[in-house]
Amino acid sequence: MSSINSLTIQNFTAFKQADLRFSAGINVFIGENATGKTHLLKLIYALAKRIVNEKNALLPPNLKTIFRPENTAAELIRANLPMMEASQDSIIVLNNGYKLQIAADGRATFSTHAQGIPVDRPVLFIPSREILSIYPGFLSAYQLREIPYDETYFDLALSLNAAPLRENKYHSVKHLGQPLENILGGDNKVSLENDHFFIDMSDAGKLEANLVAEGYRKLATLVHLIRNGSLTPNTILLWDEPEANLNPKLMVAVADFLINFANAGGQVFVATHDYLFTQELSLRSEYKQTKKEIKFFSLFRDPDYEGVQVETGNMLHEIDHNPILDAHLHHIDREDQLLYGQASVTY
User: Fold this and answer.
1) For residues 108 and 101, what is the distance between their CA atoms, to the nearest angstrom?
2) Could you tell me if residue 241 is left (phi over 0), alpha (psi between -120 and 50 degrees) or otherwise beta?
3) 132: nearest Cα among 227, 66, 215
């Protein structure tokens, strides 16, 4: 099965020029707000989904439904281009052979080249906001009404809607979700009944999803996707801010899950602001506690260059620009200043 191994970007949203080479294991995007982490996830998803679902057609992926620009896809061309560059197109190439070009008038074209490596495995996107609590009626509402959710939510809802696997099929993937089920209280804790999700919590009994803490709802989402065959070792998983509404103890469990998932054959892309999560993955990489490569991508702005810049490393200490660590160290400095009674403390 082919993985997503490269992405080249020119004049797309925050990026003037970027050339990213990915790991077949876990890829972690870090950076301050508005540096393009979610845009990268959505761009990879849109292109990969397009290639997997319609391999023989040349229609471009519908970026409007995923990015939701107000008018046309032309709004995704890098903002504030100098006058001499204002007519430049946005060009994106995935796996060295699948090219998307967006013209200044919003027209998009999609082409393939023989040297391109096909994406022949399912892709799954998990947005930062959980969906179990809003699932009732969501599929029909999205199709019939204007609602403030992009297509990644609709696609996830469709995946959640699939019927559970037969027991003999589920047995081969059960080990992936078992540690998460144990956190919820044991086997068969998540169910879809009459368009409503229920989670059977060990200490509170069977509750409708909207009555369960959001962090547990996120874990239940993973459990159900594994149970119904939407998330398998063949899947390419893209997850935006997995740390949202999870306590630090659960973040270690999520890191364990992603490592086990990658070791089983899955490819992972995550965007995060979480200190413990990134440190946990970096330690696993440094001490070789994973079979698959973990790769970090730091997105940052440099006043000497146009657009967002990217640096990479297999461990966090190989990266110079790490705003998560910078904020953590700055907090320790403030704590020391308060502890030792220094007169001036900057917040």
Assistant:
1) 6
2) left
3) 215
Please name the residues in contact with 274: beta carbons below 8 A apart, sequence gap of 6 or more: 242, 243, 251, 324
Q: How far apart (Å, rounded) are the C-alpha atoms in residues 38 and 235? A: 19
Cβ-based neighbours of 186, under 8 Å, separated by 6 or more: 202
Q: Which residues face 313 on adjacent strands?
A: 296
Q: In whole angstroms, give the CA distance from residue 65 to residue 68.
A: 5
Torsion over CA: 68, 70, 72, 76 (sign)? negative
Q: What are phi and psi of 29, to 5 degrees?
A: -100, 125
Per the CB < 8 A criterion, the answer to whether 308 and 32 are in contact is no
Tens digit of pLDDT per residue, the chain (347 long)? 789 999 999 999 999 999 999 999 999 999 999 999 999 999 999 999 988 876 555 668 888 899 988 777 788 887 555 544 555 899 999 998 899 999 988 888 998 886 778 888 999 999 999 999 999 999 999 999 999 999 999 999 999 999 999 999 999 999 999 999 999 987 878 999 999 999 998 788 899 999 999 999 999 999 999 999 999 999 999 999 999 989 988 999 999 999 999 999 999 999 999 999 999 999 999 999 899 999 999 999 999 999 999 999 999 999 999 999 999 999 999 888 888 876 555 55
Sorted by where each starts, the structural domains of the chain and their CATH numbers stand as: 1-122+232-347 (3.40.50.300), 130-231 (no CATH)
* CA neighbor of 162 nearest in space, from 210, 65, 234, 231: 231
Q: Assign residue 194 a region (left: φ > 0; alpha: ψ between -120 and 50; beta: otherwise).
A: left
* Count of C-beta atoms within a 10 Å radius of residue 286: 14
Q: Helix H segments across the chain? A: 37-53, 63-67, 138-144, 151-160, 167-170, 174-184, 214-227, 248-263, 275-286, 323-339
219 CB neighbour count, 10 Å cutoff: 26
